Amino acid sequence: MEASRDVLRLVEIMRALRNPSGGCPWDLEQDFASIAPYTIEEAYEVADAIERSDPIDLCEELGDLLLQVVYHSQMAAEKGWFDFDDVVEGITRKMIRRHPHVFGDAEARSAGSAKGQWERIKAEEKAEKAARRAEFGTSEKPEASSAPSPLYLDDVPSVFPALTLALKIQKRAAKVGFDWNDPTPIEAKIDEELGEFRHAVETGTSREQEAEMGDLLFSVVNLARYHELDPENALRITVRKFRDRFAYIERALVRDGQTLQSATLDEMDALWVEAKGASRAASAEE
């Protein structure tokens, strides 16, 4: 079998890997749950390549992410749920339906993105999904069909990183008015949660401390949301900045014949200050 620019070749490869007769033993052992962490990891690696502006890695990581879609589709096909063609048809239908001002008839295109149109389309999609679930009731399903009726926040998947999940949950709640209109009470809430965390550190268990830290972080996300900042991206920027400055420390120590292990905290702190100055100077030149 040879490489191809046709996506169907990738589908064929995955089908061969999952073939009980002559397939790959490792691939045959996998299921949705065991592959899911790889799917999430590949999505992060795509984001990392974008952040680094690396087109070579981006091309490769997009391929790895596409493989995850094909992998899950093949496992679903084996269960009789759906196949890769169904996935492609579903997303193309969704994109066409959600952009009537681009793909619709002359009247729809001239109307542009009418007010309320997005909500109407989403409601139609939700109704169709409910109908498909009911139709699916006679087939093998990953969950029992006796699940309770969905609640308002159930539309937000729990698979996102915690900061992103908190942001999405808060945005969803804000749509029905559960929100503050200015930052003052949010900042007061952060102070309150910080005080409760300190109290938990002094008198509480590790579980109580963890709970209070979660409350504090949730409040910080709320403040970021008010200022229209993405807390996940903000933290990633800070982590990248920390890594760059720590690398500066390590290179400086090696240049002076030392190591991270042999240096004192005061020596590393002095180099940290140097790293901050160097990064600020570099930013000023850009």
From TrEMBL:
Belongs to the nucleoside triphosphate pyrophosphohydrolase family. Residues 30-103, 188-245 form the NTP pyrophosphohydrolase MazG-like domain. Signal peptide: none annotated. Residues 129-143 have a biased composition (Basic and acidic residues). One of its GO terms (biological process) is dGTP catabolic process. This is Nucleoside triphosphate pyrophosphohydrolase. InterPro entries: MazG-like_dom (IPR004518), NTP-PPase_MazG-like_C (IPR048011), NTP-PPase_MazG-like_N (IPR048015), NTP_PyrPHydrolase_MazG (IPR011551). GO terms for molecular function: ATP diphosphatase activity. Residues 129-149 are annotated as: Disordered. It catalyses: ATP + H2O = AMP + diphosphate + H(+). Its EC number is 3.6.1.8.
